[in-house]
Amino acid sequence: MGAWLKRMQEAPRRRAYAGTYVVSSSAGALSSARIWHVCDGSQQMERIEALTGAPRSTFRRNDEVLTFRADEKTVVAEKREAPGLFPNRQIVGDKVIAEFYTLQAAGSERVAGHDADVVQLVPRDALRYGYRVWSEKKTGLVVKLQTIDGAGRVLEQSAFSELQLNAPVKMDQLARMMAGTSGYRVEKAEVVTTTAGAEGWSIRNAVPGFLPTTCLKRQISPGQAGPGMLQWVFSDGLASVSLFVEGFDPQRHRREGMSALGATQSLTKHLADRSEGDWWLTVVGEVPAQTLQAFAQGLERRK
Q: Does pLDDT of 86 surpass 80?
């Protein structure tokens, strides 16, 4: 499993490609985008042009991200960890993955005109979904991915509908486009790396397989003053869960509960704390609802 995962992880870092990919969910939601990707040594750049919804272009240079919103004439500048394999999944360790997933070969198919190997990652417990992955035979690049629930239903699918490998994508051209902010209002989203312990939070009972990867303190919205929001991210190597904690605001935080869109589940909860005031927790992840509930029940304020 380790060699297969490493090959997929390295594929986007070793070549340029351009293509159109489509994301669809069991709920009927559909979105598509055009992507241009290039890598030069240790530096990666990509441009993603939304083809559905509000017009927007996103440029990424390693962890530097600019999102151009043409209808609002704004550019949001922020720092984000570079994604792992398409579509934006981060692999944190094949040993963890092997402990909680079983790898099964499932033949080969053609996707967007390219021959691909198909494998299934079957979860060993009910705390995570399964995956079916199509990787291009020669390069290992992931060209299609399905998220599957415990009953075998496809919750979400991401796939290239058209793909050009070794495309003539130029890094200097993308860099010039990324720098073209004239006429736009630039909003910087301030993000500070921190630890949950330093911010006074801990998980009472660890959720099996999910390890903390990053902890960030960010503004609730660009340019907004105040204590901001804590984002604590966990991953089992394939699936990730983010815990967002902020001060409770009765005007904005009115409804607790669960919601789902395709494979993404979200949970909101009011955390009462008599000594320090109240908090509002939002837990989001491409995992079953019970996994989010385990995180919400385990989060506690350190005294």
A: no
Measure the CA–CA gap between 152 and 253, rounded to whole angstroms. 35
Structure tokens that stand for 281 in this block: 């927790």
Q: Which residues pair with 259 in a beta bridge?
A: 266
Confidence (pLDDT) at 42: 74
- Widest CA span in the chain: 61
**299-301 and 279-285: which strand pairing?**
unpaired
Could you give the CA distance from residue 114 to residue 91 in angstroms, rounded to a whole number?
A: 24
Q: What is the spatial distance between Cα 87 and Cα 12, in angstroms, rounded to a whole number?
A: 11
CA distance 179 to 4: 37
In the chain, which ranges are continuous DSSP H helix?
2-10, 94-100, 171-178, 289-298
Grouping H, G, I as helix, E, B as strand and the rest as coil, residue 158 is strand
- Does position 72 have pLDDT exceeding 50, yes or no? yes
Q: What is the 3-state secondary structure (H, E, C) of 140-197?
A: CCEEEEEEECCCCCEEEEEEEEEEEECCCCCHHHHHHHHCCCCCCEEEECCEEECCCC
Each residue of 122-180: pLDDT tens digit? 999 999 999 999 999 998 899 999 999 999 999 999 999 999 999 999 999 999 999 99
Q: For residue 103, report the phi and psi dihedrals to the nearest 5 degrees.
A: -95, 130
